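Appendix B, record 7
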Amino acid sequence: MQEVTSTVIPLILAASSALPAAWITLGARDNLLHPDLNETFTAEVVSMARMQRDYPESFARLHHRAIISRSLQRTLFRLIVASEVAVAIAMWLGVLLLLLASAGIVPLWMATLIAAVAMVGFVGIWSAMLICGNHFCYWFCHEGTQVTHFHLVIWGMGNLLALILVP
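Structure tokens (predicted):
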């Protein structure tokens, strides 16, 4: 039984970790190949453009938070994409190490540690989006984006807890 558990648990953790790794990889790919698709909305959030248009009274009170410099908006977007790429690479390394742990090639503690650190990066990106989005009041006009970020944080936290508690 111990032998089956030492093989199956790392495989389950690898599969569970591979799913958000695939998600962030596809997002990073699209942000690299088609940056205009997401960069436009990122700029909209940090410039608070929709809030200015749809809630001018509220925007008037908070307009000092808006980032209107296009070069700064592009720089912020590039930092987000670089973070996504780095986290995606780390997550796939964690998945690989979990697969190697299931074969007994690397210790499970090392594989889960690397995978957990990578998963903290995943949770960190989406938590940062929530925090920064809150600063720019994206809940006024980008509610769907906020809900997506909440779901990603919860997904990552579930995986993180499994990586920490299961082995």
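Remarks on this record: The radius of gyration is 19 Å. Residues 2-165 form one domain.
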